[in-house]
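Exercise 7. Given the encoded structure of a 152-residue chain, write a plausible sequence.
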């Protein structure tokens, strides 16, 4: 497998490809912990690993679509709840209670909450957030005929 292909693979996929029958979840946890220790800018991969670890260790929610205490439906409802908080802020700006710039930081915080829950939902489905975003971006770009140099 080329270095470029390995970059695209999620930590989970890399561990699964090399597991050879070992306890995969232990390997995944160790790989995620190692990824968190790596230096450099916060990438989608690092954010996803850190977000999942914080959720499981900090909040006690297993990030797995079929977990009986926090299934995929709960992630979807959490996304909807945060999106509702965002919409409420924007509604108040539209009706003139505040300007967007007065509520900018709160709006950004709600957008970050939505993205955080979307990432956890992706993780619960053992999906790599960056890979899924790029795939969907490319589909929509192709649909409208928008291609830039370097895009495949």
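Solution.
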């Amino acid at each position: 497998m080329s270095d470029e292909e390995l970059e695209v693979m999620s930590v989970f996929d890399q561990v699964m490809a090399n597991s050879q029958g070992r306890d995969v979840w232990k390997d995944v946890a160790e790989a995620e912990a190692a990824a968190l220790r790596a230096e450099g800018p916060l990438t989608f991969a690092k954010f996803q690993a850190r977000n999942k670890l914080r959720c499981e260790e900090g909040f006690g929610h297993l990030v797995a679509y079929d977990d009986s205490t926090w299934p995929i439906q709960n992630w979807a409802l959490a996304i909807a709840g945060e999106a509702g908080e965002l919409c409420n802020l924007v509604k108040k700006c539209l009706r003139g209670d505040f300007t967007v710039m007065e509520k900018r930081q709160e709006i950004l915080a709600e957008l970050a909450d939505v993205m955080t829950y979307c990432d956890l939902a992706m993780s619960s489905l053992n999906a790599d957030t960056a890979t899924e975003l790029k795939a969907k971006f490319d589909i929509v770009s192709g649909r409208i005929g928008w291609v830039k140099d370097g895009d495949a």
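Remark. Helices lie at 3-8, 11-18, 24-37, 44-59, 72-94, 104-124, 129-144. Students should compare their own answers with the one above.
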